[in-house]
Every structure is written in C-alpha cells, then in structure tokens.
Amino acid sequence: MKAASASQTNQALLLRKKYGPLYYLRRDWQLYLLVLFPLAFVIVFKYMPMTGLVIAFKDYKIARGFWGSDWVGFEIFEQIFSKPDFTRAVRNTLLLNVLDLVFSFTMPIILALMLNEVKSIKFKRVNQTLLYLPHFLSWVIIGAIAYQLLSEGSGAVNNLIELMGGTRVPFLQEDTNWLISYLAIGVWHSMGWGTIIYLAAISGINPEMYEAATVDGAGRWRKVWNITLPSIRATIVTLLIMSLGKVMDGSFERIWSLQNKATTEFTTTIPVLVYRWGIESGNFSRATAIGLFQSVIGIILVISADRLAKKLGEDGIL
Fold first, then answer.
1. CA atoms of 203 and 159, how far apart (whole Å)
2. Is the pLDDT of residue 225 over 90?
3. How many angstroms separate the CA atoms of 237 and 205, rounded?
4. What is the Cα–Cα distance from 94 to 90, expressed in whole angstroms?
C-alpha cells in the first residue's frame, strides 16, 4: 500500500512538472472564473479598506486626506490609553463578552442535545422554527420588544407581577438587573440559530454507536456523555476558538438598543466608544486606533486559543 501511494504521488508530481499551471488554467478556466468574483469582492471590500488604518497613526484631517495628514506615530494610542473612558470600555467589553461566552455559547449545545433526544419529528421541527425566529429580528426590534415587556413603568411582565401581588422589578432601569436582562436576551436571540451547526454535527454520528451502547445497557444520558459530546467536540472547539476572537468585540446594535440613561455602568463598551469618538465627535484617528487595538487583541486570542487546542490534541482552525 505504501509503495502504491508513493508511486501515485510521484506520478502526480511528474504530471504537474510536465504540464505546469498554465495547462490547468486552460483546462479549468470556468472554475477559476467563478473564483475570480468572490476573490475580487474580498480584495476590494476587505483588504483595500485596510489602507485606512494608517489614520490611527496620523492627525487625520478630512480636507487633507489619508496621506496628507501629519504623521504622529503612537501618540493617538497614548491618548486613548490614558483616558478613563477607555479603561471602562475595555472592562465592560470583557465582562459582557466573557459572560456572553459562558451562557450564549453553552446554551446552543445544551439545546441541540435536548432537541436530538426528542423523538417526535413534527414537534422537533416546530420547536426549531420557533427557536430560529429571534435570529432574524434586528436588535432595534428586539430592544423595542424588551422595553414593552420589561419596562418598570408599563412593561407587561411588571404589570403581571403587580397583578399577582408582587412589586415591580427594574429589569432595564437598574445596572445589575440590566446586566442580567442583557445576557438573557442575548441567549434567547442566539441559542436557536447556534443549534443548527451542532445538530448538523450530531446528525453525522454513526447510529451504530448508539445501538452498541444500548446493547451494553447505556441509558440516554450516558449515550449523550460518552458518544454525542465526544463526537461533536471538534465542532465545539472550532466554534469556541472563533468566539474567543470576539471577546474584545461585542455588538454595538445590542448595547445601543438596550441602553438608557438610568443604566450607564455597563453600557460603555469599545464599539460604543468607537461610535462616540468617530461618528459623534468626528475624531476618526482615535476611533480607528481603538478599533485597531481591538482587532489586534482578537487576533492574539484566536491564535493563542488555536495553539492551546492543538496542544490538547484538537485540529484547531489555523
């Protein structure tokens, strides 16, 4: 077998040397043409805008343009690092995203395992449809719904609590309650959509493994623990690595739609700071610098998590 494999490899190398890349380009030009359009899209809309990152190192003036503005080096970074708002934004971004990672990342896994155990196909499909729907709602709509339901003054939930003899709860008008509501709404919004990948991974598990476990006397939860979870571990690790890259990111729309003047402790995050400095104040150099800092930290986290996963025996993503 090894000799045959080595012979096939040598033949492939000889053919490649004989014909060269132009032969394959002429033979498969339709496929290369199809690849050309998405490649052009990535270059034009993803890589070319990166040239604008230079304004993080310049005293950018719109009238003078990217290249005409004065070079100031790391002076912009020194300014933002010394501001109290930056320290507060980093703290809040890490807090919200780490808590979001703990709850919003684990709930789709639990939900997928629960749906996989449901035997009724019709019941499963109806529930999956209902659970996917929040993903298609914008955060503006979700914020409006949240205030209609959870507002202390006229929210439907508080009206029901008061009707049952309880006292009104400031779900969105007090910092700690706002944080809990923020996390709960995030879980509700994302857990249904996140189950799609895990259900797809579970569907690829060999049914004979479950049959063998049944013969050995394993119960339902033992099958989940010893068969289902180990089988989707690679998927979980891959998605976890990708999620770690967003720990310094966060959703601007989510914060902006749920914030109010009564709760300001946790609503100053890096995306909000970029909006305030860049759009509201017109300080594009400062907004670009903080965005660049955010991206660099995200890349470092992804690479570190990938290397850690490989040391633990997983494939990783890089």
1. 44
2. no
3. 17
4. 6
Q: Which residues contact 97 (CB under 8 A, 6 or more apart)?
A: 246, 247, 248, 249, 250
Nearest to 181 by CA among 145, 154, 216, 215: 145
Percent of the chain surpassing pLDDT 70: 92
pLDDT digits (tens, 9 = 90+) for 143-171: 999 999 998 888 899 999 988 888 888 89
